[in-house]
């Protein structure tokens, strides 16, 4: 019993205000994901989805030329972009003398992809049938939204924490949000899919970074 107590106290000693804040944000994003899942699969409500579709359809009717730029933006969280970026980015980091940061990006992306596919398989929500581009796979949560937050959020984290460039965090995260919104505009996903993707990606990234911090702090204390 004393041994267990001492281990718990040692774990508490590893906690910092930053880690605690990360845990709080993780709980908030997880709660948002759970709420959206309940709205879609328990309450079967489509009010938010219909409202969001009406808004973006109005934009498209008012300015049809928006569709081209939107298609261009959505590419930057697609598999043809993220796959090479998820390989080239870590290679460049490793070549620049940052192997630890390279592994962080690789593990964050691999975990995000695996989690997204598991969630899609579990919820098994079909995509909208009126998409403005070819789509495949399941709909909830949006892979573009979830992996966009994971990839660009991880880049923002690395730039802020390891390279002293916190000013990139807001533009990168806004870019990830914009990519997610393109999925609603193109009817590739419902709005609830995209919001759940944002929440799921943020929750995964927060959990991943908190686990890394605890692991490194514990390793230094040994």
Annotation keywords:
globular; Vanadium-containing Chloroperoxidase, domain 1; 222 residues; mainly alpha
Give structural notes:
The chain is an all-alpha fold and 222 residues long. It has a single domain (2-221), classed as Vanadium-containing Chloroperoxidase, domain 1, CATH 1.20.144. The protein has 9 helices and no strands.
Content-based structural category:
mainly alpha
How many beta-strand runs?
Answer: 0
Task: Give the C-level CATH assignment.
Answer: Mainly Alpha
Return the string of H and E elements. Answer: HHHHHHHHH
Tally of distinct domains: 1
The backbone outline, from C-alpha atoms, is globular
Level of helix content? over 70%
Mean pLDDT: 89
Strand proportion, as a percent range, falls in: under 5%
CATH topology: Vanadium-containing Chloroperoxidase, domain 1
Q: What is the annotated CATH architecture?
A: Up-down Bundle
Largest β-sheet summary: none
Low-confidence region ranges? none
Number of helices: 9
In whole angstroms, the N-to-C terminal distance is: 22 Å
